[in-house]
Amino acid sequence: MQTTEKTQPKLLKLKKRLSEINDLEAAASLLYWDQATYMPPGGAAARGRQLATLQKIAHSKFTDPAMGELLEGLRPYEETLPYFSDEASLIRCTRKNYHRAVQVPAEFMGEFSEHRTQTYSVWVKARATNDFAAVRPYLEKTLDLSREMADFFPGYEHIADPLIDFADYGMKVSILRRLFSQLREELVPIVEAITAQSPTDDNCLHQRYPEEQQLDLTLKVIKQMGYDFERGRQDQTHHPFMINFSTGDVRITTRVDQDDLSQALFSSIHEMGHGLYEQGIRRDLEGTPLACGTSSGVHESQSRLWENIVGRSRGFWKFFYPQVQSYFPSQLGNVSLDAFYQAINKVQRSVIRMDADEVTYNLHVMIRFDLELMMLEGRLQVRDLPEAWNERYREDLGVVPQNDSDGVLQDVHWYTGQIGGMFQCYTLGNLMSAQFFEAAVTEQPEIIPKIEQGNFSTLHNWLKDNIYQHGCKYTAAELIKSVTGTALRIDPFIRYIRQKYGQLYML
Amino acid sequence: MQTTEKTQPKLLKLKKRLSEINDLEAAASLLYWDQATYMPPGGAAARGRQLATLQKIAHSKFTDPAMGELLEGLRPYEETLPYFSDEASLIRCTRKNYHRAVQVPAEFMGEFSEHRTQTYSVWVKARATNDFAAVRPYLEKTLDLSREMADFFPGYEHIADPLIDFADYGMKVSILRRLFSQLREELVPIVEAITAQSPTDDNCLHQRYPEEQQLDLTLKVIKQMGYDFERGRQDQTHHPFMINFSTGDVRITTRVDQDDLSQALFSSIHEMGHGLYEQGIRRDLEGTPLACGTSSGVHESQSRLWENIVGRSRGFWKFFYPQVQSYFPSQLGNVSLDAFYQAINKVQRSVIRMDADEVTYNLHVMIRFDLELMMLEGRLQVRDLPEAWNERYREDLGVVPQNDSDGVLQDVHWYTGQIGGMFQCYTLGNLMSAQFFEAAVTEQPEIIPKIEQGNFSTLHNWLKDNIYQHGCKYTAAELIKSVTGTALRIDPFIRYIRQKYGQLYML
């Protein structure tokens, strides 16, 4: 980042403080990564304490009144700078985070954080034993705390708005309700038309695929797609995630199911999408709050763009499928490209969000979004949540979970976070992914034929130039507007779904 | 640890502060572990910064004047407690560390730390290219800084004493010189008698041993020896080490040479010895400065006890050798137990300390110890060090390194630490290992036959009860006296060497 540190000692001071906080947060992230990958069980108790300590120190350094004074002191200078200059963006973004951080008392943060840790461990058992009652009192307290949290940000239109704002800055219930209802209207008839047909045969994916070969394959695929192993690595975890400790060290994890080829493959590509975003951020933003993805929705747009729009496209498999066949000749030697392509894009009414196809996925998200709002508004009690959940699945997807483990207990979000603001990013990500991809292809139509040749750099470079490099200098709304020319809208996604699934299911 | 926190709020405050500092140090250790094991190359720059930040914060929290006030305020309470009670020991040990930490200005620490980092990277290249001249100016500065460091602790008998004290509290040049010269007098004739014979054939160790099987074997061996994998793990690094993040998470690393069976095997057992010490510390000391080994020498005594006294004994291999043969039938099927036992205990005049046998090893250490002292005393210039090094090897070991890479550049210590206090712990460890083992076997003679049956728990329990559990509650001198009944002395080691090598070489 270009600086005028000599003339602006306050800016230098700000950056020094931010860099120190960033180092503490990076260390906390590594503690978390290690916990999920290699830590022996005996390390758990101390690790929880160590993580809490680092987070507490980072938080107290960030909310130090001296930080507020520095930011205030920089206001006159900021006003002389172009709005999107690096320095103005740094000050603006830091100020946004600072105000958010000081709004919530440290004591409350501590209480909530401890409650979340407890709730998570109760949930792990409750899900394994199908025992919603065990976790219910915890979830009730989570709901209370989520409401309290929102109330630290008075003046909201809807009580969920401040909670949504944490993950997707600038988003609100009123905007989301409109987007989601338009989307729902378009999707429901497509789902009906597809599921009226006889189900796609995806047995080819459910054979024995040895772990080692699957891992080897995922590494080969994501390397070719552009993931930089000099600045990253892939390990195995129970729940795949992306995490970074600097722009030079952006790691992903994956999960292998030896009886399902699609698990490791698509989770690797998904996390790689998150990883490409973080690897693509300008190196000179490192150590500042600008060096991260700009919102959960935009982050998810990149994982979904690479996983679905690219990774489940016919062109992609035209290139990669012969290699997959040579990895697994006995399993796939007699399966045609088209049969494989259909299998990985099978649309069905199902109960598990994580395994849902592109067409039904957003319906799963909307169920959660609506239930979150109802609970926050006081229109739904936690004790009635399982029934409401199942009822919505019956109505919206025509299927009912066999038990709460596959129903209301399936997602970790409410049990490790808050109620409110936890799910909208998935649908936002899907919508954005299509809108970004359409803009990319409009500008550079060769992207599509290049993918068929296993060349991903045209697309990758376009994304780096237009999205990744900026980190969070632009908000999601600013980015979408500047990159695609319009605000976020549903039609690129609907066009994408209509075209792809129209062909697949001959609608 | 039992506490009287209610009546002693100052003690509670002290523990809270210490626990926070401990968490920061543990996080820094994990950053280091990751750097040495899994970090992609791109992470290096930021990692250096992150490590420095954590160390700086931990140091500034520990040297906070409030810490000194708390320690002073606890003095009257401490005087009411038994000297070796947990609480008195905690206060005493913290005070010792505190005075050491505040004695050195933070600015000097920062300068020295940065200089060490630079020197290390210059040394890596210099060793690879056999270019002592490249690293010479750095080493000259290290010598200056080492002297300055010592001068922060005025009143010493010898300028190296404060530096030795960091690693081996209570040790001094005057004591070490006496011990080392006695030891030397005993060892030289033994080395001469052995090396007058025709050299042992150790070709059986230098065959092709595939990495995967070697790693598998090391895991099996150290598991049987008592290393707890629920509270530890083994990974690969260039230079093996032990590191811990809590008493519940004590990790070791090893290095495999596919053309030398002894590398991974003995480095695993060596690091396991360090690991057993840390795993054996009382769990309720965790988070306090008492939860660590009491000195470098005592730590080394445990790695050497398990590696050499146990791991290179005939009884040990009577049990394990058939298993090793079944791992490597083509390499060792026709090699007898005795031939293998002789090979792993081959005594020879050599130039590399790390590969030296038990008999000559201490002669290597003494060369370094003497040269350190001469440099600190101003009797040897850094520019004359390579010549002095080679001359001492000629005199003491009858061999001369072919080049500086195998000579004065071979050990990392001076290039990443200071000059002074870096090597005595190895010989102290060897002496202590024999003294401790002799005490153990005198008390429980069944230890020896049990080892032959692959049962290590009698020895392990004795070490836990007598040494490990206490952490650093007792100083090295206190521990040796209380466990063995006398001060540190050379005769148990000499007895051990005479007996073992007398048999091996029929002296």
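qc> The mean pLDDT of chain B is 96.
qc> done
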